[in-house]
User: What shape does this take?
Amino acid sequence: MSKFKKEAPKKKISRRQFIQISAASTALMVGQFALPGASWSVDGNILRIRNYSDILTLDPAHVKSKNEDIINECIQNKLISYKPGDEWEWQPMAAEYMKQLTPTKIEFKIKPGIMFSNGFGEMTAEDVKYSFERIADPETKSAYAGDWSLLETVEIKDKYTGVIVLKKPFAPIWMTSLPGISGVILSKKAMESVDGNFTTNPPTCSGPYIFKEWKPKQVTIIARNPEWKGPKPDFDEVHFYPIDDEKTAEIGFEAGDLDFTRISVSSYEIFKSKSSSDSTVVNKPSLYYSWLGINKDNPVMKDVRIRKAIQKATDIDSILEAAYFGQAEPATGIIPPGLIGHRPKAINPPKPDPEGAKKLLAEAGFPSGIDVTLDCLNKSTIVTQAQVIQASLAEAGIRVKINIHESGQFWVLGSEKEMKDKVKDIQLITNRFSSQPDPHWYAMWHVTEQVGVWNWERFSDKEFDRMYKEAAIETDPAKRDMMYQKMQDLMEESGCYRFITHESAPTIYRNTIIPAMTPEGVPLVRYFKKA
Amino acid sequence: MLYYLIKRIGVAAITVVIAVSLLYGMIHAVPGDPLSIVLGPRATPEMKAALNERLGLDKPFVVQLGRFFINVIQGDLGTDVFSERPVSEIFFGQLPYTAGLVLLAIGWSGLLGIPLGCYSAVRRDTLIDKLTGVFSVGTITIPSFVVALYALLVFAVWLRWLPAIGAGKEGDLWDQFIHLILPSFAVGLGWVGYLARLVRASMLEVLGENHIRTARAFGLGERKIILTYALRIAVLPAVALLGVGIGNMLSGAVFAEIVFARPGVGKLIYDSVITRNYPVVMGSVIMTTIIFVFSTTVADLVSAWLDPRIRENL
Assistant: This one.
């Protein structure tokens, strides 16, 4: 039999039929998608918010990012929380009242009827005691133990009332320990049921929302808490999408997939210029601070005249224009506007003084200029900063070679443990830290104890160290303000710092919602409303 | 065939061991203090020491590597530093998203690229052939991230036909498919061009071979000759390429997962490298290496199955 046997006739589709089927399918698909103005947004009862990273743990003792605090703020309670608005203030959350009895004693009373989900009962003062002392306990190994390092105990007076007793007065308690992540109240009973530990599956919730689901790298969903006795939240569910790339988040917002997101500084003007009745763009001052550090233990930089020449030659205005698109203000120190200790102006103005810098260099024995190195992180904003610094220092005869580092490599450059004596090879470095809204946390990295740890300028000043300790226990805001301002004067006079900016935090949201934000634009989601 | 199969599996196992050892060394050679990155600036020396011991970073490199392989053989890929979940659970939770993306990208690029190459070869030197050539080279040269961004702008932002971010609702296959269209388009477009050029060249070669001339001499229809006898041979290089392509697309999926904010293995590894989450990096790397080696082995076996001459040469 032939290999090439004749096959039985099959029902074939003619070319005409094929074209008809294709056209019909295409029409069907287009009909499906091409609804006027259709977007992939879900219905208005679901609020969709972008977080810049996925959650890793919701245990307040071990959270890794602000995102986890944002979710905790919805599903749990604190005695007090940050007040939405443009000023850094606090307001009661679970507390009926808070009373400062003495500089070391704070009395609180919890609102009756706050229930923990999954049958763990009503919130009591015992839960407050457990939660705060758990974070302070060295056994917990919490990175936030410092927030409660001065906690002596929490005395329980009755079911709802207690007294926070401190070993010494601790001024930051009102703006960081209590309204921050360390102030989250967990259920003692629930925590004991999970042997004191959980990560992404909280055993119980007490806020207006409860934890519903976490899909790794995809979404975290919280839903309205049926047992919540307070004002009913406007949304059935809130979906938090982990999107680390700001440009992706911007496209997601424009495509209708998000209701609220932080946007990049470079996009702020673009979004603002698009006059839209659908969305609102706001630009908030951030809590970051960015500066040019000068290592005083480097053999070349040990002469204060050279350090001051670098301070004078740096053009802050050009940095802000090039790296922040003119959307950020010059910093006057490490403490941003709105916080105690913010200086109205820096010693060195933002404008450069190349002639003054040249004069100082000549006095230091370098009339024809010097060659220096500048280390920076491989982020586009930071690299642009470095390039502008390079150009402005060149005007004064300071020739800068830029060394760009990957994050893992960068964050150990000044660590004595890792780099040993090489830490003294650093000459100039651009750096950027964030902090909690109290000056104590801004100053902590610049004390002598931090030299070779996070103090890479190796700045060391006895007066600064003394004032740092005194300001932490000073309860008079006016006195604290003066102390932190003086501390920043000392930093700048040392020649080790040229403060650049506190950056800005542009945010966009849909006009179908009324958001609530801290002064730096962090969403306080439990207070979000429908427009 | 059995001997060939055993030989291929043996080579695959050795490849996995060598590749993973090299990757393990490279990851540990990356400068930076993983403990500071993992624990953050407020970590105490005691916390760092405890994590160092837990990760086994205090042991010599060879001991760490040996322990890693022993654990892998016992089915233990390690535990995530942050969430303390088993790495295998994390990896296999992300794998379906990447697998769906890669398979759809391969599927549509193969369905378009192979017939395009075949048609182009049959209509050699015609206008269609030339246009196909321009289209193929065009798709190869446009970087995938450019395709992704323009696809997002056009279909998600301007027209709002397709979603821009995410992977769709769990359990809703249609929604998940809709969320896959743009990413798979971006990942697969370049492969359309590759496959079309490859199949065209291969087809032209096959059409000149003796068995095709014989088939024509027997009076078989041109359609049957092309589809049954020529294309079956001409598609072999494309099958081999697709095996390697799976590995290539696994790495290409990283950009798609970032740009489209999708979950997936690429994004998992990327995030883990940035946060120095070594157990997740190593567990994921060994699994993707195994998948890559497995897919190339399967491609070899499919080639042997399709072409009797390969089987005969074993």
